[in-house]
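Protocol step 4 of 6.
Sequence for Pirin domain protein (Hylemonella gracilis ATCC 19624) entered exactly as in the expression construct, tag removed. Do not edit the line below.
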Amino acid sequence: MNQTTILQQFPLGAPPWPTLDPFLFCVHHKDAYPKGNGEFGPAASLAGRAIGQDFANKDGWNMYHGETVPGFPAHPHRGFETVTIVRDGLIDHSDSLGAAARFGEGDVQWLTAGRGIVHSEMFPLLHGDRENPAELFQIWLNLPARNKMVAPHFTMFWGPQIPRIEGGGVSLRVIAGAFPNVGQPLAPPPDSWASQPEGDVAIWTLKLAAGAGLTLPPARPGTRRVLYFFEGHSLSLNGETVEGRAGIETSVAQPVALVNGPAPADILVLQGRPIAEPVAQYGPFVMNTQAEIQQAFTDYRRTQFGGWPWPASDPVHGAEAARFARHPDGRAEAPPLAQA
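Step 5 output, structure tokens:
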């Protein structure tokens, strides 16, 4: 190869990890939750934890903003999207539109906050006879100015629906964008930057066995791509070697042949063409100007983005493990296998 493949590298410390436009935020949560206590929380002492703000990873798990159940009780968003990829465990979603979902075990929820939504994301510990491990990514994808005030919307991508490659030591899941020979791409929400052809957005998760390889396709000019190589020993990219736990921005002008080193590798790929607009962010609101941020706070104080129709800020959807989604219009859905 005549062109440089690796454009920059950066260390991967504790999340959130650095991101490039159009992405705003990326975290990887991996929690070794203990047995449940019958009330969806941990059967373990919470002494020594900063309850309500527990991110210290004591004993290998966190309560986050939860007080009795781990997770993130009711909080608002405006002006961007969240993409939540659950690899292990379950999330209970509830929102100000009256919608609810329980998803996990390979499912993805894509939420367009648009002009404003309040939602909770709780991690119910359903199993009292065994541990309740949880692993997920949450990614924030910006919205262009023209779409920041669209109606809120969520889409479920159930695990069996997600295009993938499995075999030869490769496990690839294609949540957004196309990938050669992996079938029809999923359709992102209609107002997403990912739904615009010029956005060239891709979100892929990739596991490689020791010595396994996969070639990433080129992308459109102007697109940027980052590989989050967060587990593994070493990775070769067109012959250039990176040692483990690194963020790697690669060229998209050419295919990139990945060859894994001597230990299993775990990689998240985020790709997109920059929106290239001003970003004004304060906590859960992402707009283009500070005046719009102030307006977001004013609107939230005035309307609560529709109010909170749930009896608690951290609702959990029962003791049964069945996954489901109930949309604001009453439409219900479940994973394809659950419908069979």
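Step 6, annotate. The chain has a mean pLDDT of 96.
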